[in-house]
Amino acid sequence: MDLQNRVIIVTGGASGIGRTISLTLAKHQAIVVINYRSSEQKAKALVEEIEKLGSKALAVKADISKFDEAKFLVDETINQFGRLDGLVNNAGITDDQLILRMQESQFDNVMDTNLKGAWNMAKHSAKYLLKSPFGRVVNISSVIGLTGNVGQTNYSASKAGLIGLTKALAREFSTRGVCVNAVCPGFIKTEMTEKLDPKFVEAYLEKIPLRRLGDPTDVGNLVLFLLSDLSSYITGQVLVVDGGLVM
Ligand code: NAP
Asked: Which of 50, 101, 136, 168 has its CA 20 to 30 A from that of 125?
């Protein structure tokens, strides 16, 4: 799975699952553009780590929920490397609350980051991805977008919306051979899941057939495959990586 000289943007690429995706792609010779919103130190440290591996990387600060900042991220990529071959829409947030108590702003913030952010990035990247002979988009959705979850009306709607976005984009980009797929992780150990009550985690573990929480590398390896030539006949699909939780 050689990604030599392919330029790939990973949104929220400095921490959690995004960090593992960035590192995995760099280990396979991709040029990775690591987007961050607040994790500047982590992003710079990751660029150094990747350069030590002999690959190229660039850290770009941008809030992808903002149309103009998403454009800035794509423009910086083109200014620096002159091409764009892959986009991984990984940036995402949660802000859980039962709907009776959820504020309108909680709904809007989650939708703006998780769904509109991905649309913003696809919109600004489209003309470059369509020119690439290796064009790929991978949207990081969630099993919660398939099943729904109590206290996550905002998050579930955003992640289900991302699946619709994936299928529509897959059809639009298909004429140029650009593949677009969604990945739905289950329960993956990151800062996002560290906030959860241990009793909830224990109960969740009981429901996972493979009896372990996922590791970010479980997601990173699937994303690598979807960005590689090995997946060139797969588009518009929703791939679940959850230890068998949803089947
Ligand atoms: P995380 O550790 O909380 O990381 C989230 C990342 O998103 C951070 O790098 C953050 O950047 C970035 N981000 C958030 N808002 C942003 C914005 N407006 N603009 C740019 N970047 C932004 O979460 P994670 O667990 O790695 O999750 C990564 C993705 O996987 C998310 O889409 C999440 O919904 C999805 N997912 C995770 C799990 C899980 O179990 N962990 C399960 C299913 C799906 P900064 O740190 O720079 O702010």
From this structure: 50
Taken in order of first residue, the domains within the chain and their CATH numbers are 7-241 (3.40.50.720)
Between the CA of 16 and the centroid of ligand 1 the distance, in Å, is 7
What single DSSP character describes residue 62?
Answer: -
Per the CB < 8 A criterion, the answer to whether 173 and 135 are in contact is: yes
What is the distance in A from the centroid of ligand 1 to the CA of 109? Answer: 13
State in Å, rounded, how far the first CA of the chain is from the last one.
28
Please count the residues of the chain.
247
Ligand 1 binding pocket, CB closer than 6 Å:
11-12, 14-18, 35-39, 63-65, 90-93, 113, 117, 140, 142, 185, 187-188, 190-193
155 part of the active site:
yes
CA of 121 to the centre of ligand 1 (A): 15
CA angle, corner 127, sides to 122 and 132, nearest 5? 100
Amino acid present at 206: E
- The arrangement of strands across the sheet holding 57-61 comes to 57-61, 31-36, 7-10, 86-89, 136-140, 179-185, 238-241
For ligand 1, mutation pick of 190, 195, 215 (most atoms within 8 Å of CB) = 190
Q: Following DSSP, what letter does each residue of 92-148 receive, concatenated?
A: -------TTT--HHHHHHHHIIIIIHHHHHHHHHHHHHTT-TT-EEEEE--THHHH-
pLDDT tens-place string over residues 199-226 = 988 998 999 999 999 999 999 999 999 9
